[in-house]
Amino acid sequence: MRICVVGAGYVGLVSAAVFADWGHDVVCLDNDPLKIGRIRAGNLPVYEPGLPEMVSRNMEKKSLRFTTDWEVAVKDRELVMVAVGTPPGEDGHPNLTALWNVVKSLKASIRDHVLVAIKSTVPVGTCAAVSRFLNEDREGRFDIISAPEFLRQGSAINDFMSPDRMVIGCRTEAARQSMKELFEPLDCPVIFTDWQSSEMIKYAANAYLAMKISFINTIANLCEEADANIYQVALGIGLDRRIGPAFLKPGIGFGGSCLPKDTKALVALGETYGVNVSLFQEVLRINHEQRVRIVKKLEARLEGLAGKRIAVLGLAFKANTNDVREAPALAIIHQIVQAGGQVVAYDPVVDMKDLSPLYGFTPAEDAYQAVTHADAAVLLTEWDEFYGLELERVRELMNQPLLVDGRNLFAPQVMRQLGFHYIPVGISEEHVANSLVPTA
Ligand SMILES: NC(=O)c1ccc[n+]([C@@H]2O[C@H](COP(=O)([O-])OP(=O)(O)OC[C@H]3O[C@@H](n4cnc5c(N)ncnc54)[C@H](O)[C@@H]3O)[C@@H](O)[C@H]2O)c1
Ligand SMILES: O=c1ccn([C@@H]2O[C@H](COP(=O)(O)OP(=O)(O)O[C@H]3O[C@H](CO)[C@@H](O)[C@H](O)[C@H]3O)[C@@H](O)[C@H]2O)c(=O)[nH]1
């Protein structure tokens, strides 16, 4: 199939590369010339394991090309897939400026019949509005498809190629057949729906995941007070098939470009329709408090943060990505700095050049430099590199061996034996001291 993918971000780049790998002829368009220049030079703007290799081998084969030129991008294309950003607006509704700019460009540049698949996450009703706008001059020229994406950053290629399901919202048999053909390599259930249901599925899925995280964090906070162990609790409830074990990891709350934004969008949608969505408001509030809670723990241990040197290990919103959109680490750094603390931060892949003056922290070359002379260290991203830290060296370098672990990377009893004052999430200090069985 001759495909144009619009948007060369996490979703667009991955979609374009995988389609090209499947043998399609793909042009990927972005309106950021710097980004396109970098990609052509082999320097991808996103950190995603396996993506550079996939992009470069398909560029060599000429099955994947990059452009900023609309005429080049849409020439002879059968399918245009839109994957531009839909960031949160001031009022919680997603900002659809990029999407509508693309739609207007499509209307101006495409003459013949074409399929337009919206892969961006868009509010319920968007595909219908796009179809009305694009077809107002000539009915049936643009065939609109809602094709929400469920990949996660950090495992994007694998998720794209092995999804749990595909959801396709469409109105015509031609669109249905094309999507069946395009996603034929996937071994998963394909659900065909109307546009609105497809759009709603994407938001509902993310809100459910967000709810599961706020749920387990609430239980973790109770465990800390009631002297229970969150790991044993999560295992015990997750084995119930009606609940399931995934997304029950306690920590510093969810971040990233999707879960916070899409939960906020559902709140805004509820307000639009006058439907009570306080459940989702509470999910967001709990998430915010989880970030405050970790700073309070630090503050309590150090008897105030003013003048204290705090090492922050990890900035990305989760491991295996360089993305810091809505990263809990940045919110936590902001609070520490506001309270008078001095932050020295390290992340294996995040570019800290612009972030450090903005958030007022000092970047470190590695984890050991970050913890040197620190009064406390806070671990905020679960990078593999941190599992391999020489903990005795870390302890020696610190002013005092206080480690607040927002990701529960280490076994509390081992940390205690190593001489750390170790504070994980969801396990009380008494529990670590008194438990006869391993706690993590
Ligand atoms: N990131 C994820 O893990 C993920 C997963 C599933 C769904 N989504 C959804 O997919 C969409 C894209 O997300 P992303 O993370 O890839 O975004 P992103 O910000 O990484 O990339 C968007 C790209 O679109 C480009 N763009 C903006 N306006 C344009 C225009 N007029 N013409 C051409 N290009 C334009 C930008 O320059 C940017 O490169 C969002 O709606 C998001 O909610 C994201
Ligand atoms: O048990 C868990 C699981 C995740 N998280 C946190 O939740 C956030 C989101 O994690 P994850 O969902 O793995 O990352 P995303 O790449 O944001 O992916 C989500 O958002 C995408 C964009 O819509 C969807 O496509 C994916 O299906 C959905 O999982 C991160 O801060 C994680 O640290 C937890 O705290 N506990």
Topology (elements, then pairings):
Elements: E1 2-6, H1 10-21, E2 25-29, H2 33-40, H3 51-60, E3 64-67, H4 70-74, E4 79-82, H5 97-109, E5 114-118, H6 126-134, E6 142-146, H7 156-161, E7 166-169, H8 173-182, E8 190-193, H9 195-226, H10 230-238, H11 259-273, H12 278-302, E9 309-313, H13 328-338, E10 342-346, H14 355-359, E11 362-363, H15 367-371, E12 376-379, H16 384-387, H17 391-397, E13 402-405, H18 412-417, E14 421-423, H19 429-434
Parallel strand pairs: 1-2, 1-4, 2-3, 4-5, 5-6, 7-8, 9-10, 9-12, 10-11, 12-13, 13-14
Helix pairs in contact: 1-3, 9-11, 9-12, 11-12, 12-13
The chain binds nicotinamide-adenine-dinucleotide (NAD) and uridine-5'-diphosphate-glucose.
Keywords: NAD, Oxidoreductase
Domain UDP-glucose/GDP-mannose dehydrogenase C-terminal: 311-412
Active site: 258 (nucleophile)
Short summary:
Its EC number is 1.1.1.22. This protein is of the alpha/beta class and 440 residues long.
Care to describe what's here?
Pfam families: UDPG_MGDP_dh, UDPG_MGDP_dh_C, UDPG_MGDP_dh_N. Substrate binds at residues 202, 247-251, 255, 318. 45% of the residues lie in helices and 13% in strands. It is of the alpha/beta class. It has 2 domains: 2-193, Rossmann fold (3-Layer(aba) Sandwich); 209-434, 3-Layer(aba) Sandwich (Rossmann fold), CATH 3.40.50.720. The strands form 3 sheets. It has a 6-stranded parallel sheet with strand order 3-2-1-4-5-6, with helices on both faces. The longest helix is centred in the middle third of the chain and has 32 residues, at 195-226. The protein is globular. The termini are far apart. The structure holds nicotinamide-adenine-dinucleotide and uridine-5'-diphosphate-glucose (UPG). Nicotinamide-adenine-dinucleotide binds at residues 6-12, 29-32, 35, 83-86, 98, 101-102, 120-121, 149, 151, 153, 257-258.
